[in-house]
Amino acid sequence: MTPEPYRPEPIETFQSPEAFEAMRKALTEVRAQFGRHYPLIIGGEKVHTQATITSTNPSNPSEMIGVSAKAGIAEADAALDAAWRAFQSWKDWPQEHRSRVLLKAAQIMKRRQRELEAWLVYEIGKNWVEAAADVAEAIDFIRYYAISALKYKDGAPVVPYPGEDNEAFYIPLGVGVVIAPWNFPLAILTGMTVAPIAVGNCVVSKPAEDTVVIAAKLFEILEEAGLPAGVANYLPGSGSEVGAYLVQHPRTRFVNFTGSLEVGLRIHESAARLSPGQVWLKRAFLELGGKDGLIVDETADLAAAAQATVQSAYGFQGQKCSAASRLIVVDAVHDLLMEQILHRTEGLIVGPAEENPDMGPVASAQQEKTVLSYIEIGQQEGRLALGGRKLEGSGFFIAPTVFERVSPDARIAQEEIFGPVLSVIRVPDFDTALEVANGTRYGLTGGVFSRKRERLERARREFHVGNLYFNRKITGALVGVQPFGGFNLSGTDTKAGGPDYLLNFLQMKSVTERF
Ligand code: NDP
Q1: Which of 285, 213, 168, 241 is nearest to 69 (CA)?
Q2: In the structure, which protein residues have their CB atom closer than 6 angstroms to any atom of ligand 1?
Q3: Tens digit of each residue's pLDDT (9 = 90 or more) over 441-454
Q4: Which of 341, 406, 415, 422 has the fewest CB atoms within 10 Å, measured from its CB?
Q5: Residues 153-168: tens digit of each pLDDT
């Protein structure tokens, strides 16, 4: 098998009239499919349930996107059964055959690219380019993992030893549970589902409740690509019920989770506890929140820094784990930089995602409540320089918000807000900037704008984050180019989209025969 070498999918910007028109058409066609019902998929069977989850449009919450079946405990048990049944043969498929099914899935996803983008626009309020980046990343994850998996098929080299035949080879772990967040509802769910199955595991995948329709589309694609029944089971349901049940289950071999610190800690603890009948130590991969800092020093290109700050802070309304939520500025350029940032931020257009504004709504009523409560806290902790309010309109629209004069230990400088709120911290010099940047419990992304080589080199060593960027925005990691994962309480640093990621889902077996 000689697949085309992996290259990241280009992200559509919709500048050409053809792309613009294709997206308009996709939005119309997808709208005509609102209100459909989506089943669970267990062992290849479509299962409808009495309980349901209704997905709505955050730009206009009275609009229903679709209705999903909702799993309970019985369905979770059935899904684990189906996955273990499928594992008995999937684990022995030649790696080329497994990879081929996945490469086909990537191709189907590519064919349906505009349509999937349209679902993301409606279901979670991404503007067109943000939706395009989500779909491109999902395609990238599938191709990258399908191709990377080939490198493990012949095992690992061992040192020859007289009188013995020694070998070491990789086998999959078994059945795992995938639990995904709503903010990259296609890319992250796809990456976390496809990586383990690429190397022979089977999974039960639970999407976030806010994004069950785009999740169902992934499973339509896997089915069309010919993935055998039971290899990936689709199980939307409540995180605290069915998610927690799956995590503690004795027949769950590993948990692949991306989400908040709070839920991640709960999963960490539950997965570590041995359930009756359990015969393995569960592996728990936890990729969690961030409080990402961007440093700008007095030598920086201020126009570029202002542009990168605004992109990193307000892209997808700040609802990215990598979003810049702390701007740490050296005194000498504070006022000049702030002038440019405020000017750019004032110009951002907020509105229904379908109209492709700079910023759409935040994801849900719950998100809106959380973000507005932090804005209230910010009024006590800093000086509101811009925004700080809910905007007119039927959706969950919040004005891009900037707080200045924020102390490094303020709550809005320490807690993840996950919305369009930037806290600006003024510092005397670069040394202090670095200290402040490292002064949180998180460690996901970070950035430095500087023209001083020795400062960049020092930050390379000392800025303790999993993904560090110099003189550019701090969001938008590309699969295979910037392996992604956080330090400290940002996670277990699994480095999704990295060269070693698949090893998380494999174990090595060493076999010796005496001649
Ligand atoms: P949550 O932690 O609230 O939810 C994530 C998933 O966990 C959902 O599917 C949720 O289900 C489920 N869940 C909730 N409670 C439990 C439980 N007790 N046991 C098992 N599963 C449970 O995160 P959000 O969806 O709000 O996502 C935003 C968070 O994700 C942010 O903190 C963000 O930083 C982080 N994130 C991290 C990334 C990274 O790579 N480090 C990337 C993207 C996001 P339900 O929907 O039913 O609540």
Answers
A1: 213
A2: 179-184, 188, 206, 208-209, 238-240, 243-244, 247, 258-260, 263, 266-267, 287-290, 321, 416, 418, 444, 486, 490-491
A3: 999 999 999 999 99
A4: 415
A5: 999 999 999 999 999 9
